[in-house]
Amino acid sequence: AYEKYKLSERRYLGPTSMDHELAAIMANMGHVREGNVVFDPYVGTGSILVAAAHHKARTVGGDIDIRVIQFGKKAKKSNERLDVWT
């Protein structure tokens, strides 16, 4: 079920993106369920929140490095601007 979240399938990755399997394990260990609120204070590119959203939790995140969230980066192939929302 989590294979669609593999890092190789994601359009936007930061320098420290967490592997999808570890994020899934963390969501399972946290007993994340539908209706829960999950807050990640170090969201980066959102791997933990993606896993929590898979369980239909409400997700909120922040990061000390706003550049990762706000500015994103350019895609290598298309030169398109990508960020955590793309």
Q: Mind explaining what this structure looks like?
A:
This protein is an alpha+beta fold. The protein has three helices and four strands; from the N terminus they run αβαβαββ. The strands form two sheets. It has a two-stranded parallel sheet with strand order 1-2. β3 (73-74) and β4 (81-82) form a beta hairpin. α1 (20-29) crosses α2. The chain is globular, with a radius of gyration of 13 Å.
* Major sheet attributes: 2 strands, parallel
Percentage of residues in DSSP E strands = 5-15%
Give the terminus-to-terminus CA distance: 21 Å
What does the radius of gyration come to?
A: 13 Å
Helix tally equals 3
Number of strands: 4
Runs in which pLDDT lies below 50 for 5 or more consecutive residues are none
Q: Looking at the structure, what is the overall shape?
A: globular
Question: Strands across the major sheet, in which order?
Answer: 1-2
Structure classification: alpha+beta
Mean pLDDT equals 82
Helix content: 25-40%
